[in-house]
Amino acid sequence: MSRPTRYSTAQGKATLEYLASLEGGHVTAAQVAEHFGDAKPSIGLTTVYRHLERLVESGLVRKFFVDGASSACYQYAAGDDNCSEHFHLKCESCGALLHLECGMLDEIQRHVRAEHAFLINKNKMVFYGKCADCMKVMGGAAENAEA
Amino acid sequence: MSRPTRYSTAQGKATLEYLASLEGGHVTAAQVAEHFGDAKPSIGLTTVYRHLERLVESGLVRKFFVDGASSACYQYAAGDDNCSEHFHLKCESCGALLHLECGMLDEIQRHVRAEHAFLINKNKMVFYGKCADCMKVMGGAAENAEA
DNA sequence: CTATAATCTGAAAACGATTTTCATATTACT
DNA sequence: AGTAATATGAAAATCGTTTTCAGATTATAG
Questions:
Q1: Nearest nucleotide relative to B44: CA against C1'
Q2: Residues B25-51, mean pLDDT to the nearest whole number
Q3: Considering just the CA atoms, what is the radius of gyration of chain A in Å?
Q4: What are phi and psi of B61, to 5 degrees?
Q5: Do A103 and A72 share a structural domain?
């Protein structure tokens, strides 16, 4: 039914390779298309979306939404190895998107599964809040300040 | 600068009261507008968005995005009382949006703050994964099935 | 109670991300 | 080669949200 394509295409490979080359970095569909603006196999935005969607389905790429950003973020998932312990923290004050390496999330997963009968997909975890720098700067009061 | 308005308006009150009447339920801006389609103080979508934004800023209402849903969700925040221990679980298989009452999230907050210098805003927490029913039905394999 | 200024309302237009359409090009398989 | 299946991408269509702007409402002064 949703058998992965039997066709190999230059654009598909290029897209995946580009994502993989980012070493954990995340990009939007538009950024991918822009990256291939001049490249040999130029890739249109429509096609980028199609490949990204496919890659997400196949588990090779992570897709997540960050409130504040207008478009989805895509990130190479490295076969789950360097990825399963790698989560996102979004600072609501300065807009920074930080990475969090923390085994504690496994405990949460275990707990929620055991006590609340829900199996968390850690890939999409995004926590919102305030980063260290912003905490220093604004003590604990103030609000606004989108980067 | 962002002084809350000194004006009281029928639409603003109606919007807040409607949210509050939902007892923890969440709605989209469109749903709010639709709800007031016939009502005495009919409220246009534009105005609904404006009031919701305001209510979110003032902390009376929670706003969160759920991947898969195309629009933002708004939920009465009840002055932080019945709300601070109330989080969301989104089943990626059946689409259900479940509620989670769990003190463990406080531990996470404490840990991430202490060890990772980041203060999590628990309001926006949304965990993705698979609900109990879907786990039963599909064992552990299959994928698709948006509700 | 009337005037005037500040604020609100909402229809319509603008926007921006994503999806769909569709004609064309590419690839797989015979 | 030849045909069918699949991929491509420009343009159009969607859809949620924001902006514009003229007209309505409310606050406050006089």
A1: C10
A2: 91
A3: 18
A4: -130, 145
A5: no
Q: What is the mean pLDDT of residues A70-98?
A: 78
More confident residue, A81 or B67: B67
Q: Which of A100, A111, A123 sits opposite B116 (nearest CB)?
A: A100
Considering the domain architecture, whether residues B7 and B62 belong to the same structural domain is answered as yes
Nearest Cα neighbor of B19 from B91, B104, B79, B95 is B79
Q: Hey, is B87 helix, strand or coil?
A: strand
Residues 6+ apart with CB under 8 A from B120: A89, A127, A128, A129, B108, B109, B112, B113
Q: How far is the CA of B68 from the C1' of C22 (A)?
A: 27
Q: What is the CATH number of the domain that holds A125?
A: 3.30.1490.190
Residue-number span of the structural domain to which A74 is assigned: 1-78
CATH of the domain at B26: 1.10.10.10
Q: Are B21 and B39 in contact (CB under 8 A)?
A: no
Pairwise CB contact (< 8 Å): A129 & B121: yes
pLDDT in tens, A18-51: 999 998 889 999 999 999 987 778 899 999 999 9
Q: Does A142 have pLDDT greater than 60?
A: no
Q: Is the pLDDT of residue A115 over 80?
A: yes
Do residues B124 and B59 make contact, with C-beta atoms less than 8 angstroms apart? no
- Whole-model pTM: value is 0.71
Query: Which member of B121, B128, B129 has the closest CB to residue A128?
Result: B121
Q: Which amino acid is at A52?
A: L
Residues in B closer than 8 angstroms to A57, CB to CB, are 143
Q: What is the pLDDT, as a whole number, of residue A85?
A: 64
B23 Cα to chain A: minimum distance (Å): 21
pLDDT at residue B113, as a whole number: 93
CB atoms A130 and B115 under 8 Å: no
Residues B91 and B68 in one domain: no
